[in-house]
Amino acid sequence: MANSSKNRFWILFTTIILGVSIITVGGYLIWKETDKSVPIKSDPTEQKTVKPTLPRMANLPEKKAPIKPPPPPSYQPDAPAIEQARKSLREGITADDAVALAKSLPESPERADAAFLLLEYAADTGNAEAAEFVARYYDPTDETPSGTIRKNPEIAYEWYMKALVGGQKDVQKQLVKLRQWVEVQAKQGSKEARQLLQNWR
Q1: What mean pLDDT is reported for the chain?
Q2: Residue 30 and residue 109: Cα distance in Å, rounded?
Q3: Residues near 168 by Cβ (< 8 Å), separated by ≥ 6?
Q4: Are 153 and 138 in contact (CB under 8 A)?
Q5: Which of 51, 77, 97, 187 has the fewest CB atoms within 10 Å, i.e. is most exposed?
Q6: Rounded Cα distance, 18 and 22, in Å
Q7: Domain boundaries, the chain
Q8: Is 60:66 a contact under the CB 8 Å cutoff?
Q9: Cut 0.70: pTM above it
Q10: How many of the other CB atoms lie within 10 Å of CB of 140?
Q11: For residues 91 and 126, what is the distance between their CA atoms, to the nearest angstrom?
Q12: Below-70 pLDDT ranges, the chain
């Protein structure tokens, strides 16, 4: 009986000691974590130069407008018009025939992207008419359906200039509209628009 009482006493004593130890260690760890946020007082005679961690507002770079990704296609990758365009390109279609095929594609969700494949190929070979069509895809002032091609005034300008050099005189009107649009963007703070105006010939 006395033995049993002694055992109970030691178990109770050990449990209390263990509990106190856990509470002490836990309290110490919590105190160390909260202590990090409290600044350490330094000697007032000691002078320290504190470097700013954040740049001043005057030194911040200009904010760029987020570029929207092209919309996802609303058609299957093997859609008929797309497949027809790819097949023609694989078979070595001429630039003039590529332009003619692009114009003749039937109306469908993928028509604009299929036509773009053909027109870009023709424009790359030096076809001025195709270059004008490609420019319209990128031109933010042009309302012709452009499929998943994202508008980009700089690329539009480059293709318009190639079309103009190739003899497409009617692109002058499109260039005037595009320049007006770019000037508005530049006034609104677009760095890209200002850069394009500087390079405008």
Answers
A1: 80
A2: 62
A3: 128, 129, 131, 132
A4: yes
A5: 51
A6: 6
A7: 80-199
A8: no
A9: no
A10: 16
A11: 19
A12: 1-10, 12-14, 18-21, 25-29, 31-70
**Encoded tokens for 79:** 């859609």
- Say which residue the tokens 């856990």 belong to: 22
Which architecture does CATH list for 80-199? Alpha Horseshoe (1.25)
In this predicted structure, what is the pLDDT of residue 109?
85
**How far, in Å, CA of 130 to CA of 120, rounded?**
7
Residue 65 phi/psi, 5-degree rounding, is -70, 135
DSSP 138-150: H-TT--S--TTPP
> Under the phi-then-psi rule, with left for phi > 0, alpha for psi from -120 to 50, and beta for the rest, what region is 120?
alpha
115 neighbors 105 (Cβ within 8 angstroms): yes
18 Cβ contact list (under 8 Å, min separation 6): none
Of the candidates 112, 120, 199, 129, the residue with the CA atom closest to the CA atom of residue 163: 129
Centre a 10 Å sphere on the Cβ of residue 80 and count the other Cβ atoms it contains: 15
125 neighbors 157 (Cβ within 8 angstroms): no
Distance linking the first and last C-alpha atoms of the chain: 108
Phi-psi region of 126 (alpha: psi -120 to 50; beta: other; left: phi over 0): left
Sequence letter at residue 19: G
User: Each residue of 175-190: b (16+ CB within 10 Å) or e?
Assistant: beebbebbeebbeeeb
